[in-house]
Amino acid sequence: MATALSIKDLEQQEADLVFKTFDEDTAIMIGMALVEAGKANKAPIVIDIRTPDRTLFHAALAGSAPDNDQWALRKSNFALRMHCSSMLGGRRLKEAGKTVGPELGLDLITYAAHGGSVPIRVAGVGVIGAITVSGLASAEDHSMVVAAMTAVLETLR
Fold this sequence. Notes:
This protein is an alpha+beta fold. The protein has helices at 7-16, 24-40, 66-82, 86-95, 138-156, and strands spanning 18-19, 46-51, 54-60, 117-122, 126-134. It has one domain: Haem-degrading domain (Beta-Lactamase, 2-Layer Sandwich). A hairpin with a 3-residue loop joins strand 4 and strand 5. Helix 2 crosses helix 5 (138-156). The radius of gyration is 14 Å and the shape is globular.
C-alpha cells in the first residue's frame, strides 16, 4: 500500500521528476517499466502516456476494464490542464474546500483529481505531457507512475 504524502512531499516529487529531454523512446521505456511492474503485481491497470494531442504509449493489462481508460483520460486531462499531478491537484482542491466541477470550470466527465497522472516536465520547456495509471487505489496508481519515472530518470543520468 502506498504511503499518504503531504502536499509539500508531492510538490517535491514533481520538482525531482524533470527530464532533460523526452521523446517516444523515453515514453516506451517508462511504459514498459509500468507494464513489467503491473504484471509482476498482477495489477489490473491501464497505462497511458500522452501529450495534449498524441498518444505515445498505451497498454491495458489483464483485469483492467474500459472504465480504466476513461479514468486515465480524465486524470491526464487534469494533469495537463493544471500542470501538476492529479493527486497533488486533488489534495490542493480538498485543502481549499473545492472539488472538480462547475465552480472551477472543469467538467466532471472530462477531468478527475484522483491520483495516477503525473505531468511530464522537461527542463527549460515545462509540461509537455502526462503519464497515467488507472486501475488501483488512487495513491497506488500515483506511486506506480512516480516509481517508473524515477527509475527511468536514473538510467538517463
